[in-house]
Amino acid sequence: MVVQVQEEFTLKRMPTGFVLGVVIVCLSPFVLTLLGFDFGNHTQELVWSELPQLTATEQTNVLFYRLPGAFTHALLEWTAFCAALFTVLLAFSQFRMSGDVTTPIIGMALFCAGSMDAFQTLAAAHLIDDDVANQDLIPFTWVIGRIFNALIMIVGVGLFLGKGVQYRRFGTPFLLLVSLLFILLAYGIISYCAHSDILPQTQYPDNFITRPYDLIPLLLFAFAGLYLYPKFYRQQPSLFAHALIISAVPEVVVQLNMVFGSTALFDHHFNIAHFLKIVAYVVPMLGLTLDYIRTYQEQQRSAAALDELNQKLASSNAELAASNAELEQFAYIASHDLQEPLRTVTSFLQLLQSDTDTKVSQDGEKYLSFAMEGSARMKCLVEGLLDFSRLGSSQTDLQRVDSAAVVQTVLQDLEVSIRDGAAQIEVGRLPMVQADKNLLYQLLQNLLANALKYRADQSKIHIKAEWFEERWHFSVQDNGIGMEQKHHERIFQIFQRLHGQNEYSGVGIGLAMCKKIAERLGGQIWVESELGVGSTFFFSLAAVR
Ligand code: ADP
Q1: Test site for ligand 1: of 443, 455, 497, 517, most ligand atoms within 8 A of the Cβ
Q2: What is the pLDDT of residues 117-171, one digit of tens each?
Q3: Ligand 1 centroid to 523 CA: how many Å?
Q4: Candidate ranges 186-200, 306-320, 326-340, 375-389; pick with highest mean pLDDT
Q5: What's the CA gap between 11 and 5, in Å, rounded?
Q6: Of ligand 1's atoms, which has the minimum distance to the CA of residue 481?
Q7: What is the separation, in whole angstroms, between the first and last Cα of the chain?
């Protein structure tokens, strides 16, 4: 049983037991009527001539005992209003969690319908000013209230049907606007009823159909229950939507009691109808309560899952940082310790090459020069790796740095390459930034050296900085050989080169260093480039605080 209820709950259907319960509650007054029960309020005629002989207390009591019908009516209507009020409050709380306006708008429709009931009660009990006698006011406001109830629910639910406009995504302003319109409409009708001199006759006790006007809401509720609510449920299945369908059962039975049963105020069918109207409000309220609980549980579950995920992320970040540090340490030690044997190899090779006593064949000389080249290249690699791993362990000294001055120093240091390539360098206005001067120097030096190295014929280089989304975006633009889009990420990895040693010298560490520096300065680096057209390397930096 528990499993079944759980399954139905997940299936967004109200439990079968609940549906059966509602049907039984709706049918029981009919059965009890057949068994002879009478729920009407009957009061004896007042004999006015006897009143003067009674004491003041007795007079009050006599008048008081004439009012059970009115009291029952007030209690039933007020209970229905409270259910509607609770529903709309719950609907708005759910809106805060889910952000979907569907439920609060339908909840608002229910609440406005409930407000009509509340007004009817207050007016009937003469707690608010009205100009009309209860005999006309109550049946008329009842039927108006019922038509309003059915129509506003049809409009409220109808807004979310169809695929045209997606009102549910319109958010809070739309919700407030519709709520305001609903309230104004309800207020307008209430105000009209309360201040009309004459209200039309709505009860015909001698006819088969005792309250013909009540046929309108009867048909409207039947339409909503048979067509509109099921369609809405199919489009947006929820426990609340399912409960709406079920609520059509008491709504229709309410109307049947009025159309074919009630002949006078506070009679048997009148009271049954008012009681079942409460059921009609309570059913969606319970559906919404279950929905609310579920949304809440889901939120709790996803918050817990998110928490768990964050913890996992934090611990894998820590693991990653630890293994990175270990790797850097390893790279440092390896490259540092490799230098010594490498120096030995190189110096013995040099000795061999310069030693005229040792006879070496022509092939041997060729091999010797290959070995010298290899060891020279290995020296570059080891030194590069050492520089790269030193970056990881060195301290970053963030301070106010004049990037224009740093660029000038770089350009001075690259003077020879600039002259060799007859490069035209254009430098825009460069800002003060929050950076480490040495690191910024290395970053710009690498980018400018590359721009000079990977040039086409006439090298043109443009350096500038632009303020974008609270950061400085530096760019080093060249008109060099460029590269295909597929290499844009790869070139920032260590030892990744797009060219052979015989085309362009280098070891493939420069851009990996740039990436590391940019990240250490709290920024990012990326490239935009087109093969044969040129490249622009960007990096972002924080402004001076
Ligand atoms: P290196 O220049 O030593 O090969 P880098 O890490 O500086 O190593 O660059 C990696 C690769 O990116 C280079 O081999 C080159 O193919 C490509 N590259 C770098 N800068 C440019 C540029 N300005 N224009 C075209 N290609 C470039």
Answers
A1: 497
A2: 888 788 777 777 666 666 677 788 888 889 989 998 998 898 888 765 566 667 7
A3: 20
A4: 306-320
A5: 10
A6: 25
A7: 65
Q: Give whole-number Cα distances, 500 to 316, 332, 497, 504, in Å.
A: 37, 26, 8, 6
User: Which atom from ligand 1 is nearest to the alpha carbon of 480?
Assistant: 24
| Cα-to-centroid distance, 488 and ligand 1 (Å) | 10
Co-location of 410 and 507 in the same domain: yes
Tell how far the Cα of 508 is from the centroid of ligand 1, in angstroms: 7
3-state secondary structure 316-335: HHHHHHHHHHHHHHHHHHHH
Strand 534-541: give its sheet, edge to edge: 424-427, 460-468, 471-478, 534-541, 525-530
Residue 291 or 526, more confident: 526
Q: What is the mean pLDDT of the chain?
A: 87
Pairing of strands 525-530, 534-541: antiparallel
Domain hosting 503: range is 397-543
Percent of the chain at pLDDT > 90 equals: 47
User: Mind listing the pLDDT tens digit for each residue in 341-374?
Assistant: 889 998 988 888 887 777 778 888 888 888 998 8
The answer on 425 and 285 residing in a single domain is no
Same domain, 171 and 296: yes
Contact 234, 166 (CB under 8 A): no
Contact 72, 40 (CB under 8 A): no
Residue 478 maps to which CATH number?
A: 3.30.565.10
Ligand 1 center to 95 CA (angstroms): 54
> Per-residue pLDDT for 2 more than 60?
no
Q: Would you say residue 251 lies in a domain?
A: yes
Sign of the alpha-carbon torsion through 182, 188, 191, 193: negative
Of 254, 288, 309, the last residue of a domain is 309
Say how many domains are in the chain: 2
d(CA 307, CA 353): 66
Q: Are residues 289 and 431 in the same domain?
A: no
pLDDT bin (cut points 50, 70, 90) of residue 524 is very high
User: What are the pocket residues of ligand 1 if the criterion is a CB atom closer than 6 Å to any ligand atom?
Assistant: 446, 450-451, 454, 478, 480-483, 491, 497-499, 506-512, 535
Residue from 511, 514, 526, 538 to probe ligand 1 pocket by mutation (most atoms less than 8 Å from CB): 511
Nearest CA among 12, 460, 10, 473 for reference residue 235: 12
Q: How far apart are CA 193 and CA 434, in angstroms?
A: 72
Among residues 292, 309, 326, the one where a domain terminates is 309
Give the CA distances from residue 396 to residues 100, 393, 437, 442, 447, in Å, rounded to whole numbers and listed in that order.
48, 9, 9, 13, 20
Q: Which two tokens stand for residue 129?
A: 């000013």
Q: How far apart are CA 191 and CA 199, in angstroms?
A: 13
Q: How far is the CA of 385 from the centre of ligand 1 (A)?
A: 16
Q: Is residue 490 part of a domain?
A: yes
On whether residue 462 sits in a domain, the answer given is yes
Determine, yes or no, domain membership for 383. Answer: no
